Structure formats: C-alpha cells, structure tokens
Amino acid sequence: MEPKGEKPLSEVKALLKEQINECKGILNEIPNGEGTLYKTTMTVNDLGKIDVYQYIYFLCQHAKRHISQMQNVQEEFSRFKDAE
Predict the structure, then answer these.
(1) Interior CA angle at 47 toward 31 and 53, to 5°?
(2) What secondary structure does DSSP assign to 11-63, as a single string?
(3) Closest CA relative to residue 57, chosen from 82, 72, 40, 74
(4) Packing angle between helix 52-83 and helix 9-29, nearest 10 degrees?
C-alpha cells in the first residue's frame, strides 16, 4: 500500500487495522513454531534474513507506526485550524 492521498484518513486507518488483524490471524494459524522454519530477506534497515514470525511482527509494528503518524498529523492539523 503506497500513499497517494486518494482515500480519506478514516479509510486508510481502517485498512491498516484490518491488515494488522490479518497478520494476527496468520500468527494464530502457525502457533507451533512453524514460522521459524522459513526465512525471508528484509531489506529495511539491512535487517537481512528474518523468520516468518519476525516478518509478521515487523509488518504489524510498521502499520501501527503509520496509524500513530496519521493521528499525530490529524491532531496537529486540528490545532492549526483551531488557531486560525
């Protein structure tokens, strides 16, 4: 998902939360250590090879970070509008 500014903030937040829940659902389906059997390359910050559990955890945390950033921008924008 790449930001293009075409969707309202509420829709983007809902989509990110849906993706987080999808990741959690996948984790629930592989509770017995299966996620450690497969490694993938993570190019972000040169993390190198990480297992599926680490990858899904990264995706969830990354989505949460974006939700937090959107909330901060929305709050800042609201303060700016209130000051006018």
Answers:
(1) 5
(2) HHHHHHHHHHHHHHHHHHH-TTSGGGS-EEEETGGG-EEEEHHHHHHHHHHHH
(3) 40
(4) 160
In the chain, the amino acid numbered 10 is: S
Closest CA to 38 of 23, 22, 54: 54
Coil, strand, or helix at residue 80?
helix
pLDDT tens for 34-57 read 888 889 888 777 778 998 888 888
| Per-domain boundaries in the chain | 28-83
Look over the chain and give the mean of its residue pLDDT values, rounded to a whole number. Answer: 83
Residue in the structure block whose two tokens are 């937090």: 68
- Sign of the alpha-carbon torsion through 64, 67, 73, 78: negative
Residue 48 has φ and ψ, to the nearest 5°, of 75, -145
Determine the longest span between alpha carbons in the chain, in angstroms: 56
